[in-house]
């Protein structure tokens, strides 16, 4: 049975796993799960992932429900290039892990919550934008960008060194979410972070653009959406 990927490209972690599989030419059976339709809450999907989240892989009966665990597993199970997750170098590996441990609260949470408050919560509840809450997370994103510039990208081309790793894929997918609501100026204000993002896009295209088509479309129509919220 081929590797199955359950995903929705509205999900940042789904995009990271999808891109990773495409980049490494890992064949997989695509199993889209429409979050906007609530398919992840259905009883059939709960048999696949009781947490009702995406992405998930099913590798011939072996299921994994966390995106970072998924890519680490595939790198080792499929013998993929070490630069993604350098188990052959303790120090380089530690740098990748350093960012991935930092990422959840410092990159993913504020970026995701800013978009939640600007778009997803108002759209799903019909309530107006809570601008005070949005501004709180906007400031947290700004702080995160300063920290990326001053620590993770200081004297480095990529978040964990001079070669692209899974840290860069996960980080870039989170920042790209900001484009959907025209908040990309938060990271583009840093020439260092902006250059890193452009480097990651170049290294991962055409798969980067493929995975972010929905993000680009939302960016193009966001003003129309925002006017109705």
Automatic annotation (TrEMBL):
Pfam families cross-referenced by the UniProt entry: GST_C, GST_N
Compartment(s) where it occurs, according to its Swiss-Prot or TrEMBL record: Cytoplasm
Keyword Disulfide bond carried by entry: no
Reaction(s) the record says it catalyses: RX + glutathione = an S-substituted glutathione + a halide anion + H(+)
PROSITE patterns on file: GST_CTER (PS50405), GST_NTER (PS50404)
Keywords of the record: Cytoplasm, Transferase
Coiled-coil regions listed in the entry: none
GO terms for MF: glutathione transferase activity
Domain GST C-terminal stretches: 89-229
Cellular component aspect of the GO annotation: cytoplasm
Main location, first listed in the record: cytoplasm
Residues annotated as domain GST N-terminal: 1-82
SUPFAM superfamilies: GST C-terminal domain-like, Thioredoxin-like
CDD domains: GST_C_Theta, GST_N_Theta
Domain of life: Eukaryota
Biological processes per GO annotation: glutathione metabolic process
PANTHER family tied to this protein: GH16740P-RELATED, PTHR43917
Family classification: Belongs to the GST superfamily. Theta family.
Name of the protein: Glutathione S-transferase theta-1
Source species of the chain: Elysia marginata
């Amino acid at each position: 049975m081929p590797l199955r990927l359950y995903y929705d490209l509205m999900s940042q972690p789904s995009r990271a796993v999808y891109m990773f599989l495409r980049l490494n030419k890992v064949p997989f059976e695509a199993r889209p799960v429409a979050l906007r339709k609530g398919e992840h809450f259905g009883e059939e999907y709960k048999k696949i992932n009781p947490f009702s989240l995406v992405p998930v892989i099913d590798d011939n009966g072996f299921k994994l429900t966390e995106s970072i665990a998924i890519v680490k597993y595939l790198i080792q199970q499929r013998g993929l290039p070490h630069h993604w997750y350098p188990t052959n170098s303790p120090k380089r590996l530690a740098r990748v892990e350093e960012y991935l441990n930092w990422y959840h609260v410092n990159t993913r949470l504020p970026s995701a919550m800013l978009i939640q408050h600007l778009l997803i919560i108002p759209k799903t509840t019909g309530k107006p934008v809570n601008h005070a809450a949005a501004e709180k997370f906007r400031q947290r994103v700004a702080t995160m960008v300063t920290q990326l510039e001053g620590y993770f990208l200081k004297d480095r081309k990529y978040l964990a060194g001079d070669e692209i790793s899974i840290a860069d894929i996960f980080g870039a997918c989170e920042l790209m979410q900001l484009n959907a609501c025209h908040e990309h100026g938060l990271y583009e204000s840093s020439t260092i972070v902006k250059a890193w993002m452009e480097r990651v896009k170049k290294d991962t295209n055409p798969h980067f653009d493929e995975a972010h088509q929905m993000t680009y479309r939302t960016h193009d129509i966001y003003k129309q959406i925002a006017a109705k919220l």
